[in-house]
Design goal:
Length: 354
């Protein structure tokens, strides 16, 4: 049986695409092993999937001054030694890395052990961890056509991002029943996100009188971000987050408002949901969401509203623009070449594992 080591961690966005690949890899006959940090978010997520998990030491690589900059390199070196030992024990046919700082020692160790490596880069421009790892990779999968210019010649593979199969299995009637909506109005789904949700949440809630004239609204506000002032507002349901019913909420949604994290927008593309993106501002991030959103707009998938231009009026105008032109957005998304990310990536893995 073929063996694969997968790695990625630090945030859920560096883990859930790996999880989305598990069923197809198992079907293709792979034994799957996972290397992450000792106690990162990835540990619980992977162990819940019944995958054998190995923890290693990891350190963050920073572009700014911090005292940990003097100690974290030693953690990375320790992680490298631990990864070498694990890889020598498992003897995988291929290593797949989704990104995050824990992956750097794993990719370096794989290269030292002459193992083929595939990296997936979610954002339009590679982050620091992947920048260090890319020279040691055989292929680099990515979500945006523009990313190819940042990659070494011959390594670029435009695949899109794997999303959980369950998201394709939503049921509109179940979603309406869960939300208590009668289905007479189109449904607007708002994903505020975890960090940086404040501006989106406040913008939507300020525009509720106008928006509820047209839509029933389901609003995922983020942890501890529910606003009691709007509880009981007709046609408006707010939740911190939704897990098991998320697929049904997507099935119900006619229009989506979202931040522009790479995994989130790839889900919207795969599900062909007309959407408005409000990227996290450059002041609050490295600007990757702005690049992601503008790429999707250039491809005709999205409408984009910069956070700096977010007002009640601009928000309502842009949501109505997306809704009124929804068929055009669906058509563009349906024509995308990134229709089967899981199949494309597993195909590359199979190629290298032969």
């Amino acid at each position: 049986m073929k063996r694969i080591v997968m790695t990625g961690g630090g945030t859920a966005g560096h883990v859930t695409p790996n999880i989305a690949l598990f069923p197809a890899l198992k079907e293709a006959g792979y034994e799957i092993y996972y290397i992450g940090s000792y106690n990162g978010i990835e540990k619980n997520l992977i162990e819940k999937e019944g995958i054998e998990y190995y923890g290693i030491s990891s350190g963050k690589l920073r572009r700014y001054f911090a005292l940990k900059n003097f100690t974290d390199p030693f953690r990375v070196m320790k992680g490298y030694r631990e990864a070498r030992k694990i890889l020598n024990k498992i003897k995988p046919d291929v290593v797949f890395s989704k990104g995050g700082f824990v992956t750097v020692p794993v990719v370096f160790a794989a290269k030292k052990s002459c193992l083929p490596v595939i990296i997936h880069e979610s954002d339009l421009t590679p982050g620091l961890a992947n920048k260090l790892a890319i020279p040691r990779a055989t292929y680099v999968c990515h979500n945006f056509p523009e990313t190819a210019k940042y990659l070494p010649e011959g390594k670029s593979r435009l695949t899109g991002c794997p999303i959980r199969q369950e998201l394709y299995e939503g049921d509109r009637n179940r979603g309406l029943e869960f939300l208590g909506f009668d289905g007479k109005k189109p449904v607007l789904m708002v994903v505020g996100g975890s960090t940086g949700a404040k501006a989106v949440n406040e913008g939507i809630q300020s525009a509720l009188p106008e928006l509820t004239e047209t839509f029933d609204i389901v609003h995922l506000c983020g942890k501890e971000k529910l606003n009691e002032e709007y509880v009981g507002t007709p046609g408006y349901k707010q939740y911190e987050y939704i897990s098991d019913e998320l697929k049904d909420i997507f099935a119900v949604a006619d229009v989506v408002v979202s931040r522009a994290g790479a995994n989130a927008i790839c889900e919207l593309l795969a599900l062909k949901k007309p959407h408005l993106l409000i990227p996290l501002s450059a002041a609050a991030s490295r600007g990757d969401q702005i690049l992601n959103a503008n790429s999707f707009k250039r491809q005709g998938f999205s409408e984009v509203l910069e956070e700096e231009n977010l007002t009640k009026e601009t928000l309502v105008d842009n949501i109505m623009k997306v809704y009124d032109n929804r068929e055009a957005y669906i058509k563009k998304m349906s024509e995308s070449s990134m229709s089967d990310p899981i199949g494309e990536i597993v195909g590359l893995i199979e190629q290298l594992a032969e």
